[in-house]
Design brief:
Blueprint (H helix, E strand, L loop, with lengths): L2 H16 L4 E4 L16 H6 L7 E5 L2 E6 L4 H7 L6 E4 L7 H9 L5 E3 L7 H11 L5 E3 L21 E2 L2 H4 L3 H15 L3 E4 L2 H8 L1 E2 L12 E5 L3 E4 L7 H9 L2 E4 L4 H6 L7 E3 L6 H7 L4 E3 L4 H6 L3 H28 L7 H13 L4 E4 L4 E4 L23 E6 L1 E3 L2 E2 L2 E6 L5 H18 L2 E3 L4 H13 L10 E3 L8 E6 L17 E4 L2 E4 L3 E4 L2 E11 L2 E8 L17 H18 L5 H10 L4
Parallel strand pairs: 1-5, 3-4, 5-6, 8-13, 11-12, 13-14
Antiparallel strand pairs: 1-2, 2-3, 7-9, 8-10, 10-11, 15-18, 16-17, 17-20, 18-19, 21-28, 22-23, 24-27, 25-26, 27-28
């Protein structure tokens, strides 16, 4: 058993005993319901050693268990080894199966502790519905880890800067006006915004409080005529503060929102999103003043405007050039000297940095060689990762943050002569990718309806992949954003959202052979108008990412004429967009990779 992990779990159990609680639930969250957490709130990772972005830890006096989904089964299995923590594999993503376990294993009248500062109102209700029948009390008063985490990182305080309107395409004043129209429609006096990307978008600001996500820890309250930004005046430069004041945005301390909400008159009507507001803030507001409704910001933010789309095209060109230079570099280095997965990730970061207006990675690069490619969210570490050899498959999933937008792209390449099985598997994944990329569908179609297109070629061979097919992508914001998602689970509300023109989504089917290799092909696709027919308006996708797909891994005989045409047209566009930016040597490398199949 890992000594460090076992001692932390023992300390947590001691804290539980002191507060007379029978179980502790540690969720992967912060006061803003973020997917990627500042180190200050990486409680589950610190307690368990599992660093995946999704997972729930439950600790009782005689059991410690971690629940996560198929993306992380291999990673969790490795990181939890000898920790004394049991891995519980979710059968369906986004399904709270830990609640079933708690309902079955907690004694009658037990007390479950969970930190109300990071648990959402919707989550606490789900807990109480599931556990109430057995008389279980849910205590939200404590952050039990706080007293046992001696070197807990402080809250980040990165530089906050204004995001220019010539990139954003819309002024802060206009965005706030759009929210105020929503307030009027709903009869609200205020709306409380806790989600960091929504705040950054609405205020046209960016920061670096969360790795790879250019956001700022803060809360925002938007009223009919004024807004309050709970961020801390000391973090905001004078010129930005003046601009905010001109737009009637008042600065306030980060920790002051709860007290402000508590002091509001009872007749005030405050809109809150139960999926994002924490239990702690909701309790400060009180149910008399709160009106539950969906935030308008994800829908507003999810539709990219014409300015954002124009800049996104430039970001894709920059990213394509950086990737081209990386793969040329890999070919030159491979077999000449040791080449680790982590070194590849570092070099890709450097090549992106040469492109200008680069702000950092949009997530930690997944560089999975051979068996590591089957670990869906694998992150290589120096001294603990594989070395590439001139054989086998390399899966590289990465993205960049540019002032012109956020990128996310995956390519699987053969570093030697691929086997027939590898080529067949790759071609099946490619067929699914093309099916989704070339889809034409009526307005109102949701992601759960489109997801099947990317899986049918695999299903026909008895194969599948255990993650969603597509997620929304921000504009110089979070690489994962709503409101839309393309996925197989109807339980995910985001998969029920209708696709609309301006939505930017990933297209990333895959296939993972444990212990052997992983395959994923990912581009970002923009939903655009197609045509109007007697049956209504139809939509389609435009692929924005620009980098060749490895033809050495394709079995042409498995492709239809239409699929081959799509591939050739895509490669022709890659050539036309990237070649003017390349040296003659780089053009010579790219040309055969973009030639017709």
């Amino acid at each position: 058993m890992s000594t460090a992990i076992s001692s932390r779990i023992a300390a947590l159990r001691q804290a539980m005993a002191e507060r007379h609680v029978d179980a502790c639930l540690i969720v992967s969250s912060d006061p803003h319901q973020s997917e990627y957490l500042p180190d200050h709130w990486q409680t589950r990772a610190w307690l368990s050693g599992f660093t995946g972005s999704a997972g729930v830890l439950v600790v009782t006096p005689d059991h410690a268990g971690l629940w996560t989904d198929a993306r992380y089964f291999l990673q969790a299995g490795q990181q939890l080894k000898d920790s004394g923590i049991t891995l519980h594999k979710l059968k369906v993503p986004h399904t709270p199966e830990h609640l079933d376990w708690l309902a079955e294993n907690l004694p009658e009248g037990a007390t479950l502790s969970v930190d109300g500062a990071v648990l959402s109102l919707a989550a606490i209700r789900s807990l109480r519905r599931k556990l109430g029948a057995r008389g279980t009390q849910v205590d939200t008063r404590y952050d039990l880890a706080d007293g046992i985490w001696p070197d807990r990182p402080p809250r980040p305080q990165s530089e906050v800067f204004e995001f220019p309107e010539h990139y954003a395409g819309q002024s802060r004043r206009d965005k706030l006006a759009g929210v105020r129209r929503y307030l009027e429609q709903q009869g609200l006096d205020y709306f409380v915004v806790t989600t960091l990307d929504d705040i950054a978008w609405a205020l046209n600001i960016r920061a670096a409080d969360v790795d790879c996500n250019p956001v700022c820890l803060s809360f925002l309250v938007i009223g009919r005529r004024q807004a309050w930004w709970w961020v801390g005046e000391e973090r905001i430069a004078d010129d930005l503060a003046d601009g905010l004041a001109f737009d009637q945005v008042t600065l306030a301390p980060y920790d002051g929102l709860g007290q402000w909400l508590d002091a509001l008159p009872e007749e005030t009507v405050v809109g809150v999103d139960p999926a994002s507001i924490s239990v702690r803030l909701y309790e400060a507001l009180g149910s008399v003043r709160a009106r539950e409704c969906a935030s308008p910001l994800p829908d507003m933010k999810g539709i990219k405007n014409a300015t954002e789309i124009r800049h996104l095209r430039e970001a894709m060109r920059k990213d394509g050039v950086a990737l081209l230079r990386l793969y040329r570099w890999i070919e030159a280095e491979l077999g000449q000297r040791p080449l680790s997965e982590a070194r590849v990730a570092d070099q890709l970061h450097a090549f992106r940095g040469e492109q200008g207006d680069f702000y950092g990675d949009s997530f930690s690069a997944i560089v999975g060689y051979g068996p590591n490619g089957a670990i869906i969210h694998y992150k290589p570490e120096h001294g603990q990762c594989a070395e590439l050899k001139p054989e086998g498959l390399l899966l590289l999933d990465s993205g960049g943050q540019y002032l012109q937008g956020t990128t996310d792209i995956t390519r699987t390449t053969a570093l030697g002569e691929p086997t027939p099985t590898q080529k067949r598997h790759f071609t099946l994944v490619l067929k699914g990718h093309i099916a989704l990329a070339s889809a034409r569908f009526p307005e109102g179609t949701s992601g759960v309806q489109l997801d099947t297109l990317a899986r049918v070629p695999l299903w026909e061979q008895g194969l599948n992949f255990g993650h969603g097919t597509g997620h929304g992508v921000g504009f110089f914001l979070c690489v994962h954003e709503g409101p839309q998602r393309i996925g197989a689970s109807a339980a995910a509300a985001s998969a029920q959202v209708a696709l609309a023109p301006g939505m930017l989504t990933s297209n990333e089917p895959g296939l993972y052979i444990d212990g052997a290799y992983g395959i994923r092909i990912e581009n970002l696709i923009l939903c655009v108008e197609d045509s109007a027919t007697a049956y209504g308006r139809f939509l389609r996708f435009e692929t924005l990412s620009l980098f060749p797909i490895d033809k050495n891994l394709i079995m042409p005989e498995l492709l239809t004429e239409q699929e081959e045409r799509w591939l050739n047209e895509y490669h022709q566009r890659v050539w036309e967009e990237l070649s003017p930016r390349l040296s003659p040597d780089e053009q010579a490398w790219l040309k055969p990779r973009c030639s017709p199949l």
